[in-house]
Amino acid sequence: QKEVEQNSGPLSVPEGAIASLNCTYSDRGSQSFFWYRQYSGKSPELIMFIYSNGDKEDGRFTAQLNKASQYVSLLIRDSQPSDSATYLCAVAPGFQKLVFGTGTRLLVSP
Amino acid sequence: DAGVIQSPRHEVTEMGQEVTLRCKPISGHDYLFWYRQTMMRGLELLIYFNNNVPIDDSGMPEDRFSAKMPNASFSTLKIQPSEPRDSAVYFCASSPSGGASIKQFFGPGTRLTVL
Questions:
Q1: How far is B4 from chain A (nearest CA, A)?
Q2: Mutate to test the interface with A, among B56, B92, B106, B110 (most CBs of A within 10 A)
Q3: pLDDT tens-digit map of B28-87
Q4: Contact A97/B42, CB-based, under 8 Å?
C-alpha cells in the first residue's frame, strides 16, 4: 500500500463547476497536509496546507481534513481552464519530510 | 527575491558518464531537499539537509548517487555512473525552519536524459 494515494485521473469538469480532488494516507501519525499544483513541464507550487480537522478556505480553494478517516481533499470552486494541472497531495509523517502522492490530473473545459 | 535556482535545466548524457546537478536554495532557508520525479513513481524524496548536514538519505536509490552541501547556498547531486533508468526530472526544494510550517519551495528542475 502506498503511503499517499490519489486517483490519477484525469478529472474532467466544465468551467464554473466545483472540482473535488481526494487523497488518502496510511500514516495515522501524520500532522501536516499539503496540496501542490504542478503545471505541465513546471515545478510543484504550494497552494494550500492544513493541520487541523475540518475545512480551510483560501479564495476559490478549500482544503478538508478528516484524520479519523485518513483523507484530505481539495475543492476548487468556479473552476477555470487555468486550473488545469496536476494536483499533488503531500503528507508530513514527521518533521520537515514530505511524502507525495502521484497526483491527480485536472482538466477544466471552457 | 530569487527562488530556488537549479542548473543545468536540461542534461543529456550517455550511460556510464558522471552527472552533476546543482542547486542554490532560497537565502535564509535552513532545509534543502532533492527529489526525483518520474511518470511511474511520481515525486520521490532522495535526501534532505538541515543546516548543511544530511539528515535523511534513505531515498537515495543506490551508491551511484551522492549529494553534498558544502555551504548554506549550494548543493550538488551526483550520479556516477549514470544509467538510462536514472532519466527523470530532478527537483531541488528549500524551506525555512521554525514552527510547524514546512512549506517547501521548488526550483525549476533539471530534466536528465541518459542514453
A1: 11
A2: B106
A3: 999 999 999 998 889 999 999 999 999 999 999 889 999 999 999 999 999 999 999 999
A4: no
**Residue A82 to residue B19: CA distance in whole angstroms:** 36
Q: Which residue has the cell 520525479?
A: B37
Cβ neighbours around B9 below 10 Å, total = 10
Residue B5, burial from CB neighbour count under 10 angstroms (0-12, 13-18, 19+): middle
Q: Tens of pLDDT along A19-41? A: 999 999 999 988 889 999 999 99
Grid-cell match 551526483, residue found: B78
**Shortest CA gap A35–chain B (Å):** 10
Q: Whole-angstrom Cα distance, residue B54 to residue B67? A: 9
Q: Do B50 and A34 touch (CB under 8 A)?
A: no
* Nearest chain B residue (CA) to A93: B102
